[in-house]
């Protein structure tokens, strides 16, 4: 019984909001911007005395997401490339670290909406380049920009970034 407070953009699909509540967490709505999420999370921590566990910039979370790659390599040992969706970068960072440590020959590709292409722009420019405005994409789970913890991992270990149109996502 540890209480969990999950900060979620007001625009998140109702099915996701319902699932958060079904797991017993308290849903705390915010505006759909990185700044609003950060400010709301800081307020929740201050009000509750809780601990912030960032969904994509927390090293332990990133490491945990790397176990996806372990399962993939175990179940499909002949794999020669993986394509991973990227929002904040936690999942692809964890997967890239694990794959490149165990199978450096396997290509790791990030995939993101063309309307939310901060990872692509960052790789192209060689520096962290966050989205300046909330992205307009139906792919709500990848609207968050990559961050300072995930960027160096992505820069060094992700082979390329693929962008897709809204039509291709549909």
How is the secondary structure organized here?
Blueprint: E1 5-9, H1 14-22, E2 26-30, H2 34-48, H3 59-65, H4 67-75, E3 81-85, H5 90-102, E4 107-113, H6 118-125, H7 150-157, E5 160-164, H8 166-169
Parallel strand pairs: 1-2, 3-4, 4-5
Helix pairs in contact: 3-5, 4-5, 5-7
Pfam families: PALP
GO biological process, one term: D-serine biosynthetic process
Keywords: Pyridoxal phosphate
Q: Could you provide a short overview of the structure?
A:
This protein has 170 residues and is of the alpha/beta class. Helices cover 43% and strands 16% of the residues. One of its GO terms (molecular function) is serine racemase activity.
Describe the structure.
This protein has 8 helices and 5 strands; from the N terminus they run E-H-E-H-H-H-E-H-E-H-H-E-H. It has 170 residues and is an alpha/beta fold. 28% of the residues are buried. Helix 4 crosses helix 5. It has 2 domains: 44 residues, 3-Layer(aba) Sandwich (Rossmann fold); 111 residues, 3-Layer(aba) Sandwich (Rossmann fold).
Question: What keyword list fits this structure?
Answer:
3-stranded parallel β-sheet; Rossmann fold; 170 residues; 43% helix; two-stranded parallel sheet; alpha/beta; 8 helices
Reported by name, the CATH topology of the largest domain is: Rossmann fold
* Number of domains as seen in the coordinates: 2
Biggest β-sheet description: 3 strands, parallel
Strand order of the largest sheet: 3-4-5
Spatial extent as radius of gyration: 17 Å
DSSP, total strands: 5
Instruction: Quote the beta fraction.
Output: 15-25%
Class inferred from helices and paired strands? alpha/beta
Average the pLDDT over all residues and give the rounded result: 96
């Amino acid at each position: 019984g540890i209480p969990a407070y999950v900060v979620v953009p007001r625009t998140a699909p109702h099915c996701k909001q319902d699932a958060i509540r079904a797991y017993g967490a308290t849903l705390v709505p915010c505006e759909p911007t990185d700044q609003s999420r950060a400010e709301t999370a800081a307020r929740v921590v201050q009000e509750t005395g809780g601990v912030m566990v960032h969904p994509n910039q927390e090293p332990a979370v990133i490491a945990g997401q790397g176990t996806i790659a372990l399962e993939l390599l175990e179940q499909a040992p002949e794999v020669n490339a993986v394509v991973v969706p990227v929002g904040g970068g936690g999942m692809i960072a964890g997967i890239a670290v694990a794959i490149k440590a165990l199978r450096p020959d396997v290509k790791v590709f990030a995939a993101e909406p063309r309307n939310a292409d901060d990872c692509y722009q960052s790789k192209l420019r060689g520096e962290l380049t966050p989205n300046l405005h909330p992205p307009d994409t139906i792919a709500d789970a990848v609207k968050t920009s990559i961050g300072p913890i995930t960027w160096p991992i992505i820069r060094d270990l992700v082979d390329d970034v693929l962008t897709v149109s809204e039509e291709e996502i549909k």
